[in-house]
Structure formats: C-alpha cells, structure tokens
Amino acid sequence: MTTPRWRSGPLGPDLILDRFSCGRPELDYWLRHHAWRSNRQGSARTYVWSDHDVVVAYYAIAPTMVQRAGLPRSASGGLSDVPAYLLARLALDQGLQTQGYGGFLLLDAIESICAAARIGGGRLIVADPIDQAAASFYEHFGFGRITGGRRMFLRVAAAQVLLDSD
Prior knowledge:
Elements: E1 7-10, H1 25-33, H2 35-41, E2 45-51, E3 54-67, H3 73-76, E4 81-92, H4 101-120, E5 124-127, H5 132-140, E6 144-145, E7 152-155, H6 156-165
Parallel strand pairs: 4-5
Antiparallel strand pairs: 1-2, 2-3, 3-4, 5-7, 6-7
C-alpha cells in the first residue's frame, strides 16, 4: 500500500529513530523509548517507513477487546466483548505532513491489521485520536465514533473493502 519511495516494515535494530519528529513530542518519545519495549513484551508491534534507515513514519498495533456498549449492533455482531485491533500510534514526520502521505500510512496500517485478522480473527479496528484533527482524519477514512468517548472504530470487513477499492 505504501509509496515505493520508503521501505515499509517492522521496527528493526538498524533503524535511526532519533531524527523522527512529527510535531507531537509524546509520539516522538514513544517511538524512541517505548516501541522496542512494547515489541519485546508482545503488547504491540511497531511498523515503520524508513528512508536510508531513517524512520520517517510509524504505526503501532495491538490486539484488544472492546465492550459492546456504545457500538452499533452491526459493529458488535451481538458480542458482549468484541475482538479488535488497536491502532495505538500513527505518526508521520513533519517533513511529510500535509502531502497526503498520512492516508497512505493509515492504509498500510489497515493492511497489516486485515492480514492479522485473516489469521487470528478480529472484528474491529479501533483508534483513540490524539485531538480533533486526528478524529477528522479517521472519519475521512470511514471510522465512526463509539458513543460516550473519543474512541473510534472501523469494521475489519469495511477496512478490507477500503483496501480493495484503492
């Protein structure tokens, strides 16, 4: 899904993280100080775009469960606890922002999540937007809001349709 300009793949030991700056210090810090630990612990997997081993974008995904409360029935499928994947982080270096690459990065993340769902199941993709601009970004790609909070969701089946139409 990604543009051929960057290599997309899992976080690796030879990648340069300290040049990454997305304009949100908490996201920069997480990449430098928590991504490796999350990978080692198995709590999340981080994937990056790199240019000559310099990270220019990243996302992290983790399995999760979502309570049915606040979800439409079509999203929950009648389940009380809905298996899902959390798009825990999504960040693009400032030099690449406002050029449409964020959408490509999101599609890359969705492609990884859909592949995981084909293997291990999962009904939803959820995200916790960091601010209103991020929420609008997710809405543009079909994410809906879960009633009563900031969490947003997209059904995996709808995500696959989104990928197939691209």
